[in-house]
Amino acid sequence: NQHGGADTIVLPSRKRYVLALASTGEDRSANGDLDITSGPLTIVHRGRGTATIDANKVDRIFDIGNGAVTLDKLKLVDGYSNKTDGDGDGGAILVGKGSLTVVRSGIAKNRAPWVGGNGGGIDSDSSGLVKVIDSYVSNNDSGGSGGGIEASPNGRMLVQRTAISANKAAQAGGVMVFGPPVRIVDSTVARNLAGAGPEVEGDGGGILVGNKGRLELTNSTVADNGAYTSGGGIFSDAGSQASIRFSTIARNRADADAMFGGTTGGIHLRTAGVQVAANARIA
């Protein structure tokens, strides 16, 4: 953070790098999460496999306050957001400003468990581009929206050749889409769950496209997701836009707990702004 130019941090071993200082919710890199306030910064493992950063449940792992950050061949586990820092968002990564590229990495078993806590794996509030490529986001959960990922209302996102699976949230079990386009390409969104909560209904088991959100889903699969209320696969809210091409929407379930009376296992529409191409398959 003290250096204004580009930096690279190399993690040479596949061992676990464990965070040990309990969080006080500060943003000065004194304890808890790893605060990044300048860039560009690359953190990479250059050997075989991935290097693991284990948050040990003391806090989330990365809080990106500024700069362009690239995470390459890392596995981020056991993040647990601090309720007083960033509204409790981002179980593994919170992107406040700047941009983020996650490549050849895994984000797993992280939590933003608070009521209204968003983005169990990644939460972005940035106007910068967030990219998740050749990676997986799995077994994360949040008390609000986006068990796997919550996209920014102000910034674009690209998810490519990535599996978003087995995540859970009160709504948008896999991905929460706001604002500018979220492009999901050559990817799988599977076995995620929107389980309802004190402030929200359990809509959008796989993907929830919120008001003014824009989704572009191409050559991808949305399968085996569940919502306690509506839209087991995809929920597209009023005022949203979605384009679905060369994709399969299959075996998703609404009213997954048989209690809330939700509807539409595949794609639940509250908008006319959804285009489903003839080359898409809904089963």
Spans of 5+ residues with little confidence (pLDDT < 50)? none
On the 0 to 100 scale, the average pLDDT is: 94
Instruction: Choose one word for the global shape.
Output: globular
The count of helical stretches stands at 0
- N- and C-termini, Cα separation: 50 Å
Query: Largest sheet, order of strands side by side?
Result: 1-4-7-10-14-18-22-26-30-33
The fraction of residues assigned to DSSP E strands is 35-45%
Task: Outline the biggest β-sheet.
Answer: 10 strands, parallel
How much helical structure, as a percent, in the residues? under 10%
Number of strands: 34
Overall structural class, as computed from helix and strand content, comes to mainly beta
The rounded Rg comes to 18 Å
How would you briefly describe this protein structure?
The protein is mainly β and 283 residues long. Helix content is 0%, strand content 41%.
